[in-house]
Amino acid sequence: METTTKKAIKGGEFLIKETAAHDIFIPEEWNEEQKMIAQSCHDFLATEVWPILDRIDSQEEGLMVSLMNKAADLGLLGLNVPEHLEGFEKDFVTGMLATETLGAGHSFAVAFAAHTGIGTQPILYYGNEEQKNKYIPKLANGEWKGAYCLTEPGSGSDANSGKTKATISEDGKHYILNGQKMWITNGGFADVFTVFAKIDNDENLSAFIVEKNYGGITLNPEEHKLGIKGSSTRQVFFNDCKVPVENLLSDRGNGFKIAVNILNMGRVKLAAAALGASKATATKTIQYANERSQFGRPISKYGAIKYKLAEQAIRIYACESALYRATQNIEDAIHDYEAGGMSHEKAILKGVEQFAPEAAMLKVNGSEVLDYVVDEGVQVYGGMGYSADAPMERAYRDSRINRIFEGTNEINRMLTVDMILKRAMKGELNLMEPAMKVMQELMSIPDFNEEEETLFSKEKKYISNFKKAVLMTAGGAAQKLMMDLGKEQEILMNISDMAIDTYLAESLQLRVEKLVSIKGEEACKPQLDMMRVFITDAADRMNKNGKEAINGFAQGDEQRMMLLGLKRFTKTEPFNTKDARRNVAAVLVDANKYCF
């Protein structure tokens, strides 16, 4: 991994700043220790999880707990926990790689992520020293399992409207919890719950560390779900549950902030888990395409199948490029905050919060890439794809929850635009000046002077124009609609999709550029093809989303001018995507796995 000094970049600044290829981290740079950790995670799935997926899905009594204990024995539950709390204190990027690899573990991946993420992190990052010393070592070594109780029947996306109440006991020693929580992952076997409730008539939630043995806790039977059938999902009821006052987590009324910040971290980690599942599914798809023969030859020889295999890989590679670009940015921000005197725990929270827009975009993209990959996996398998005796049926069902987990994709799309615009309003992001320059450019005669063409000059120009398209559309919408923009959800989602495509395209281009600088152009031909296909297709999506947004708020001359600008900013030269995809598919088929 790079140790050179990098230019600090803030969350959302990708829209207004150029990033140099040598400033980003790419997965081709994993060090030996990181590769060993990833291999350990893969080996754990191969020996302990994949052979017994049916048993896991049937929720065999004690099976998931035993798997969590085995993972704990390998140190996987405490990778990002500090050493003094009996963890391994690996950095944020390494933890993300482990999350990605274990993401191929179906229901186990869900239980693992819930325990190490929302089950552990609220206490680790918001607990006082006494709370951390009491709970974190037991969560890190697997003695206790963790769960997180936020959602209620009447409060999902609107988490702060929860009705669960906490009142102080007469002797002042306990909070008395009463309420109902639902969709609680690991609920059936958790020993420790982070529970969100409002104290008395407070406007905002508070958070509490609740042990299962406190009493007053009852559980509904396991939910019957479309997918992730092996993960424990239950309703949890609190009936006069007595929680010691010292188990208030952080300050009174700080629960909503805790929930938001833990969700930011959960979003980027969900993208990593979805990426791992996508790679495993793509590999199975490629192998089946090579094994299955029709009309006297493997179906991997046919163009329609080559398209699917290549498109799976292109979307996976773009997602991975963006994920680890953002992850390293978060890691760098954490180091900067620590260098400024902030504690490690606060620095992690602040670093993730800084890149909350990117986390939201990655969550959307990662979950939708996985949905695409499993859907095409079913299609390549044909009739066997629909059979529960083949792997695609489970992959298809298990994938679907990810577009709902950690805030629905609709919420995350709107959050992306909202967070970036709010930062601009606060003066934290200088969006106004670049947006004004774009509008001035629309009024001027286009510059037809051709610059000297280099290997990536064309793609860099396209991406620069993509950014202009986002700034023009978002700026026009904000100016026209002002305070009503938040009500125009369709427009916000169009703009968000434009931003996501821009971030992915740039991340992919920078990754390939850096890879070429390391390996040479000849060795990177498939990656160059993937980059060019993605950017060509992204331009068409940008144009469609831009038109829908502009037509939704602009009229007359303003509309015509912006549509002309959009056409200019999303224009690309003709490119033979068919042959490029075939080149990518040939590499995959020859390797008999996802190999990038």
Please tag this protein with its features.
596 residues; alpha+beta; 8-stranded mixed beta sheet; 19 helices; 10 strands; 56% helix; globular
What does this protein structure show overall?
With 596 residues, this protein is α+β, with helices and mostly antiparallel strands. It is built from 19 helices and 10 strands. Strands 1, 2, 3, 4, 5, 6, 7 and 8 form an 8-stranded mixed sheet that branches. A two-stranded antiparallel ribbon has the order 9-10. Helix 13 (409-425) crosses helix 16 (489-519), helix 14 (432-443) crosses helix 15 (457-481) and helix 17 (525-553) runs antiparallel to helix 18. The longest helix has 37 residues, at 255-291. The protein is globular. The mean pLDDT is 95.
Compute the average pLDDT. Answer: 95
Can you count the beta strands?
A: 10
**Shape by Cα distribution:** globular
Secondary-structure content class: alpha+beta
Distance between the termini: 18 Å
Radius of gyration: 25 Å
Percentage of residues in helical conformation? 55-70%
Low-confidence segments, ≥5 residues, pLDDT <50?
none
Described by strand count, sense and barrel closure, the largest sheet is: 8 strands, mixed
Residue fraction in strands: 5-15%
Record the SSE blueprint.
Layout: H1 32-49, H2 53-57, H3 63-73, H4 92-102, H5 107-116, H6 121-126, H7 129-140, E1 146-149, E2 165-168, E3 174-185, E4 192-199, E5 206-211, E6 217-219, E7 233-244, E8 248-249, H8 255-291, E9 293-294, E10 297-298, H9 303-339, H10 344-354, H11 356-381, H12 391-399, H13 409-425, H14 432-443, H15 457-481, H16 489-519, H17 525-553, H18 556-569, H19 577-591
Parallel strand pairs: 1-4, 2-4
Antiparallel strand pairs: 2-3, 3-7, 4-5, 5-8, 6-7, 9-10
